[in-house]
Amino acid sequence: MPDIAYVNGRFGPLADAVVSIEDRGFQFGDGVYEVIRTYRGQPFAIEEHLARLERSAQALQLLIGQTRDQWSCLIREGLRLSQFPETKIYLQITRGQAPRDHPFPVSSAPTTVLTFREFHPLDVSVRNAGVQAMSFEDIRWGRCDIKSVNLLANVLARQRAKEAGVFEAILVREGMVTEGSVSNVMVVRNGVVQTAPEGHRILSGVTRAFVLELARKEGIPVTESFVTREELLAASEVFLTGTTVEVLPVVRVDGYAIGSGSPGSVSRLLSRRFEALVG
Ligand code: PMP
């Protein structure tokens, strides 16, 4: 099956999908998106993702033309057409097509795009061994809680990580760890799971919320407050959370071993619990 795209009412092969160069997503990055993945063919946490999409759109005064039920129908239809064992579903809404001018157009219909591509989970050996990361200055704008298609600072950070041969760039603003370029970051210090608080500095990850809940259920104390880069390096464990990375131990940051230098017991436990939750 080819990759599938939906653009403004029509499904077709992704390779044939087009939007206008006057689309405000292309001109200004004036749009929002979500990424949902399937487990055993079923989309995971669809309500949470759609709720965040609505929050992001609302923050930008962007009208969404679809109800949650309509999104769900489109997602199911895309999955039916694509038939991959596991699928990465991408949803994007922009402020639509209009002559290039910064203020919102008086009238424009939003552009709605979904894509359906085969999802290849991280190799089990990578998850078991853990990954390396590097710290990188967080130069993003002041509303990282909005899942906007403006990802240039994330792109630059991830590119630097790739050049350095590490998996993720951990972003640091004014000495404080915010999140990863494509993930949330959690540390374990003195038996406490600590992660940056919700607010304008981070994207409130769907996976983050599930993992914090799992930690609480296990009786592991949780703190939502910032850690410094030094505290990150001195933590007994560091792990990433996200739709595509799930719970992924980080064993080295900036070349320094985290804890024993291999995935710690809390990361492994939460990874197993998350696996059970999605399974
Ligand atoms: N932060 C950023 C910057 C991200 O791009 C992502 C991935 N969407 C996350 C955190 C994790 O969010 P989620 O768990 O909802 O995938």
UniProtKB/TrEMBL annotation:
Its EC number is 2.6.1.21. It catalyses: D-alanine + 2-oxoglutarate = D-glutamate + pyruvate. Its cofactor is pyridoxal 5'-phosphate. It holds the Pfam family Aminotran_4. The keyword Transferase applies. One of its GO terms (cellular component) is cytosol. It comes from the Bacteria. The keyword Transferase applies. It is an enzyme of class 2 (transferase). One of its GO terms (molecular function) is D-alanine-2-oxoglutarate aminotransferase activity. SUPFAM superfamilies: D-aminoacid aminotransferase-like PLP-dependent enzymes. GO terms for biological process: amino acid biosynthetic process; carboxylic acid biosynthetic process; D-amino acid metabolic process. Keywords: Aminotransferase, Pyridoxal phosphate, Transferase. Belongs to the class-IV pyridoxal-phosphate-dependent aminotransferase family. Homodimer. This is D-alanine aminotransferase. The lineage of its organism: Bacteria, Pseudomonadati, Nitrospirota, Nitrospiria, Nitrospirales.
